[in-house]
Amino acid sequence: MTPQQLRAFCLSFNATVEDFPFNPETSVFKVLGKLFALTNLDGRPLTVNLKCDPDDAIRLREQHPGLIVPGYHMNKRHWNTVTVDGELPDRLVRELVEDSYDLVVAGLPRAERLRLDRP
Questions:
Q1: What is the domain-level CATH number for residue 1?
Q2: Does the pLDDT value for residue 102 go beyond 70?
């Protein structure tokens, strides 16, 4: 997955915006103000921090050592840093981004979740 593909995929989710609250290099993808992906699209290797169910986070780290690690500068229980350099299948990366988005949406107040469901 290229940086452009990662950015486009993150922005494809309903009500998602890209923000740069830390510096001009760090893209923060948010849904209704809540972070679900954080990356430096110019970074080499390309990595992205993604929210993850704690049990899944441990399993993924064991299955993909060195490619999925505890979230850099994040809560290590709930966040993973995923290396997006081609070693992991693009399908898995897309699933992890989507899972992160879904977890964040699930934590939103009911009224905001309902607002996302409207066309």
A1: 3.90.1150.30
A2: yes
Number of domains making up the chain: 1
Amino acid at 33: G
pTM summary value? 0.93
Average the pLDDT over 84-109 and give the result: 95
Answer whether 57's CB lies under 8 Å from 72's CB: no
| Tally of CB atoms within 10 A around 7 | 16
Question: Which sign does the torsion angle of CA 43, 56, 51, 16 carry?
Answer: positive
In a domain, 63, yes or no: yes
Is 2 contained in some domain? Answer: yes
- Paired tokens of 116: 């996302």
